[in-house]
Structure formats: structure tokens, C-alpha cells
Amino acid sequence: MIEYIKGKITELNPAYLVIETAGMGYFVSISLNTYSQLESGSEVTLPVHEVIREDARQLYGFAGRSERELFRLLITVNGVGPNTARMMLSSLKPSEIEKAISDSNVHLLKSIKGIGLKTAERIIVDLRDKTGKVSQAGEILTLKDNTMREEALSALMMLGFVRSATVKVIDKLLSENQNLTVEELIKQALRNL
Q: Model confidence over 82-139: pLDDT tens digits?
């Protein structure tokens, strides 16, 4: 699987770009969010997601890894394909999508073209625990923080700690210091449990 493409943007449109590297031009589908952050003719390292089907091979490009991770989460939901996920990222900023999911804002998700009531509800149910969480302090944790949170939570639960108490301790620690590694987070959580 292709992780990223490093090269020069030779063509830039709201729906796609062409990036040239090593004498080859790659056609990459993008969201409006990504389009607004790129410049034609610039040298970039573009994180991509490759979709391989029987009849096609497509590349989806993103302005950053966090947008790509949200895209990958969205396409895990039944009824949300790559083009629907791209439409979502074109309609709303990634942070707005994460907030809509964490706040269970069905109406905002439903306002996106191609997303009906059942799909919006499924997105919320499937991704509520996987996207950014609102901590007790009211700050939204990033995807990186959420991944660390889930890894630490999983490790502590395997050690026999109760989920509800562990979640409170981990969220408190992350709100106080967002630069913790997973190991440091687990060690500090052990001291507070």
C-alpha cells in the first residue's frame, strides 16, 4: 500500500490533483479541505489512501495524516464508501465532523449530500468511541490523543482495572499533559488508580 507521494503538483482542481514524481504523474482524488491547503506547482509530501477494486485503482490524497485517518475511519462504516467520505470532508472540516460525531449531531451529518438519517446514525454509533473525545475539561482530544487513550485503556483493562474508573483517570491525565507517550500515560494512570 502506498503511504505517501512526494513530488510536484502539476495540476490542481477542487476534486483532484496530478502530482509528478520520478517522471510519472499520479491522478489523486482530494477533498475541498485538502484543495484549500495546497498550491499548484508546489513540492509536497502528500499522504494517500489507495483503494484497489476489480475494475479500478484509485488514490485519495490528504493535506495531513489526521484527515486521512478520519477518512479511513469513515470508510469503515457500512454504507460509507471513499467518495462519500470525500464528500463529507469537502462539506465539513475534519474537526467539525469529529465534533458532530462526539456530540451525536445527526442533523449536521444528515445535511451532507449523500448522507441520510440511517447512515448519519450509523456513523455516530460506529465512530463515537474512535474519533476525538470531549474530555472532562471540555477540550477535544485529537486522533493521536484518542489512539494513545485507547491503547492505554486497553492495557490497563487487561491488567484488571475497571473501565469507567480508568477512563476518568486517563482523560484527566491527557487534559493535563498532551505530550505524554503511551508508556508514560500507563505509568501515571497506575499511580492514580
A: 999 999 999 999 889 998 998 889 999 999 988 999 999 999 999 988 775 433 333 4
Beta strand residue intervals within the chain, DSSP E:
4-12, 16-21, 24-29, 43-52, 57-61
62 closest CA partner among 107, 98, 29, 111: 29
CATH class label, 4-61? mainly beta
**Does the domain formed by 65-127 have CATH 1.10.260.40?**
no
- Write the CATH number of the domain with boundaries 143-192: 1.10.8.10
Max CA separation in the chain (angstroms)? 57
Give how far Cα 79 sits from Cα of 19, 53, 69, 104, 136, Å.
30, 16, 18, 18, 32
For the chain, the structural domain boundaries read 4-61, 65-127, 143-192
Look-up of cell digits 438519517: 117
DSSP 140: B
pTM summary value: 0.67
| pLDDT value of position 60 | 96
For residues 13 and 154, what is the distance between their CA atoms, to the nearest angstrom?
A: 42
